[in-house]
Each structure stands twice: as structure tokens, then as C-alpha cells.
Amino acid sequence: MEEKIYLYYTNDLHSNFAQWPRVTEYIKQARKKHQVANEPNYVFDIGDHVDRMHPITEAFRGKGNISLLNDAGYDFVTLGNNEGITLSHNELFHLYDEANFQVLCANLHSTAEQSPSWLQPTVRIQTNQGVRIGIIGLTAPFNDYYHLLDWHISDPFASLETYIADLKQSSDIIVLLSHLGISEDQEIARRFKDVDVILGGHTHHLLRTGEAVNQAIITAAGKHCYYIGEVILTWEHQEQKLVKKEAYTTDISDYPMNTQTEERLNELQVESNRILAKPVVTIEEPIEVNWFKTTTIMQRLTEKVHQATNADCAMFNSGLLLDGFQAGTITYGDVHSVCPHPINPCMVELSGAELLEVIRATYTAEFIDLELKGFGFRGKVIGNMVFSGIQVETGQHRQGHTYVETVQVNGSPIIPTKLYNVVTADTFTFGRMLPEIAKSEKKRYILPAFIRDYLAETLQEHYG
Fold first, then answer.
1. What residues contact residue 393 under an 8 Å CB cut-off, 6+ apart?
2. Are 34 and 125 found together in one domain?
3. Which H/E stretch holds residue 334?
4. Model pTM score
């Protein structure tokens, strides 16, 4: 006799709540169908449901997201880096206090106190016909951030080694909730023969029909929940083994909206507007923002972070500010709207020669006009780089391109062999935009304040 087991999952919503009523409706309809047919079915989220770029998430520090997951009827979730490193220790510690689902993450550990009551490394469930399913969760090890917030992420492969044998002894099927990314998922499938299903995320990859690697099927449903993932497992009871694994993703872009979820989102939006309506400052004249020029507000913000961190110098890109401010009262909601990125300052150590290469790169059109997606950046383009403690003399080629002639740091010529502490957006410590920064062996992330927190202080100091 065969039994089919249905697994539904979402990943990397990033608080794209415009899609969430569709997600809820799809899940509720699917579960209703399986309930009528008496078929086992479970719903999972693979992390980064939270993103503080959205005012609801900002106002409620993620707890609004949890209420939405509750309303949709989720069974199990793991957490992503946006849950883990964009909230204070206390906020994450209590994030899931009211969750109606189980939170699984085998490699998250509190270093400040006991672990939160909601956190479990693994869980074992059983279908009505007796198939035993072991589930384990893992998240990406961004320990340069986590350690500053009194958490530690152990190596995901070592965590699997710790739990997998015991989980296998009491399970017929093992499902991994992986907020690790596609490369790590593939390596896990190669190294751990007991893992049957990997529900993936983090790197925003879309596997329309899954990917078979050894015995495992790897899945992922892109980002922002335009797709919902589904895995169908067929268990043969007579042979006592898994005989078929199927993976699909369904485009729900045009799926009907769940009206109760729409109403709930409206309620959360009204309440978040109220929370974020606290005034920051009142101004008599508008404040200009320009992504391609050095404006006064951007210069003052860069100087503010420079002074607050005691760095040798600072550099921040104008694209961090999405818009200007109109005359009148500026609220925290306005500050969030102008600077929504979950981005922290980061102190990096660069030699003078490396710093010079970074500065030269920031004057190129390829850098200024880059339409960046990800790495915490939620804007349109990188924009013009603004400096504090750095004086740059430029010239122009015949073709009109700007080039760097000379650079001084705090009034003295830059010394190629000297080491400088440079504070900048943590965005540039990832990827290949500014490789000298990304490759720096000494980085100190400054948490938990975001760039917008320094922006609010800048407004109060200079425009109050």
C-alpha cells in the first residue's frame, strides 16, 4: 500500500506582504482538499519571512509576521538571517513567544542566557498511517553579526553530524529546512545520505521541479512568495521505503486573495502607522536628496557615523536615502520610508593603497549607476559616494569621465602602507562591488543600530 505525504513551503518572503493574502488562500485551499481526502500535509517556512524594510515589520519588530504565519496555519519554520541579525538579542529571544508553530534551528545558540523556549533543533512527527518524519532546521552562519548580538551559529555540517544519526534511528524520512543557500544544500545532499528532502532558501534560487542530488531532492521557491513550493512523497508501506519524490513550484501571482488576511494586514498597517508616527524633528524648509550629488543631509549623515564610531574616515553612498523630506514634522515612519534598508555601519581595516583603489572605484559610472539588489540594500542605485575625513581632488578625461587625481585622509596625503579604519555600509563587505572592502581581514560590524538610526540623530542635531 502506498501513502502520499504533501509538504508545502515558502521561503524568503522578505515582508512582501502584497503577496501574503495569496499565500494564505493557496495554503488554506490546499489543506482543505487534503483534509477531505484524509491525506497527511504539512506547511513550512524556510526563513527571511521578516524584513525590516516594511513598516509593519519595523513597527512590530517582526511579531506582526508571526501573527500572519499563525493565521495561515503554518506547522514548522526555521529562521533566516533577517530574523537573526536585524533584531536585538531580546527582540529575537521573544520573537516567537506567541507562535502556534514549531521553530526548528539546530545551529542557533544563545550565549547570553538560556535558549528561548520556542527553539528546538529537531522534531519527529508521524502520519496517521505511521510514517515517521524527522525534521531539522539550519540557518546561515553570519557569526560576525550574531556574536555581537549574543548568539552563536554553529557550523551547519557539524550540527548535522550531531543530530542526523539519532534522527535517523527514529525516522523513516528526514526533511531538512535549510536557510543556507543552494551550494550548501547540494553539498549536504552529497555528504549526508540520510537526508531525503531539502526545503531550501536564502540565495533566492527557484527550482521549478526540484533538483536530485544523490538520494535527496533539493527544492526552493525563489523570493517574495511569487511561488509556493510543494513536495509529494510516496511511501510504500509493504516495502517500508520511500519510492517516489516529486517537487513542484506553483506561480501564485494571479491567485485569489484571502479576504481575512487582507483585513488583518490593513489592521497591522494602521497600527504600525500609529507606532511610527512619533515625531523626530520639525523643519521649515524641505531637505533635498540627490543620488548623484553630495547633498547636505548625506554629508552630515556620513559625518555623524564617522564621529560616532571614531573611525579614521567614513564613506557612504547617496543611494541609501531614497527621497528627501518635505517641510513640516518628520516622523520615524518618514525616516524609515526614506532609509528602509536593514544596513549597519561596518568598520573595515584597509591599507592606504587599498583605500585608494576603493575611492577610485566609487567614481566610476559602473559603480554609481549600479542597480543593486540584495546585500541589505533596498534602494534603486548605489549613487554617488560621500566622504568624511577624506578629501579627493578629481579631474576629467576628454570623454568627460571623472578620475581621481589626489587623496588626503584628514588633511594628510594618503600613505599606501598605512592602515586606516574606514567606516562604511556593511553592504560593501559582501559581493564584488568593492573587493578591497569585501576581502578585508578585519571587519567590525556595528550593531544593532541601522543607518536610519543615525539619520534620525542627524536630523535632530542639525535640523531641530
1. 404, 405, 406, 407
2. yes
3. helix 332-338
4. 0.94
